[in-house]
């Protein structure tokens, strides 16, 4: 009973960061902006997740948006492997990638992240509130190192 009470207390402290036993993972603060409303989308940017003879990547390999703009990122996994797209800073993505290496079954439950099986499509609706250079990347172990990342310039 004491162990159950301790486990319950620790889960309570963790909040929604981890769903018990599932490997789900959620973050509070979102770099580069916030989830957007579909009704406020000003344009759709199509992104393909790809694998090449030289590595992995996205098409296009870089994004440019305006501060305050709400975009729909329409993402298709055109590769043969599972991939993801996570919006963040380069530092936050690298830190998160290190966490994922330690917990390979981690699944994201974040509005700034999308994981797709081969042939799947999905979308992220995002309002870029802050000017600067951010990053979109695949944090599955080995994928960022294989070239699966790109800059997001917010003017």
Question: What count of helical segments does DSSP give?
Answer: 2
The strand count comes to 12
Helix content: 10-25%
**Mean residue pLDDT:** 80
Low-confidence segments, given as residue ranges, are 1-28
Fill in the CATH topology.
Immunoglobulin-like
CATH architecture: Sandwich
Estimated radius of gyration: 17 Å
Question: What is the SS-derived class?
Answer: alpha/beta
Order of helices and strands: HEEEEEEEHEEEEE
Spell out the CATH superfamily. Cupredoxins -  blue copper proteins
Report the sheet-strand fraction: 35-45%
Distance between the amino and carboxyl termini: 56 Å
Write the layout of secondary structure elements.
Elements: H1 2-14, E1 24-25, E2 33-35, E3 43-52, E4 55-59, E5 63-65, E6 70-77, E7 83-88, H2 90-102, E8 107-108, E9 113-116, E10 121-128, E11 132-137, E12 149-154
Parallel strand pairs: 1-8, 3-6, 5-12
Antiparallel strand pairs: 2-10, 3-4, 6-10, 7-9, 7-11, 11-12
């Amino acid at each position: 009973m004491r162990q159950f009470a301790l486990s319950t207390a620790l889960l309570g402290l963790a909040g929604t960061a981890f769903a018990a036993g599932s490997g789900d993972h959620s973050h509070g603060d979102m770099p580069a902006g916030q989830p957007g409303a579909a009704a406020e989308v000003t344009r759709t940017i199509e992104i393909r997740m790809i694998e090449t003879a030289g590595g992995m990547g996205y098409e296009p390999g870089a994004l440019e948006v305006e501060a305050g703009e709400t975009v729909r990122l329409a993402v298709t996994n055109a590769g043969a492997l599972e991939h993801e797209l996570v919006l963040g800073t380069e530092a936050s993505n690298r830190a998160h990638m290190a966490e994922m290496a330690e917990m390979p079954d981690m699944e994201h439950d974040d509005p700034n992240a999308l994981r797709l099986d081969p042939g799947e499509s999905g979308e992220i609706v995002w309002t870029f509130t802050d000017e600067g250079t951010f990053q979109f990347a695949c944090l599955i172990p080995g994928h960022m190192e294989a070239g699966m990342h790109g800059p997001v310039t917010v003017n």
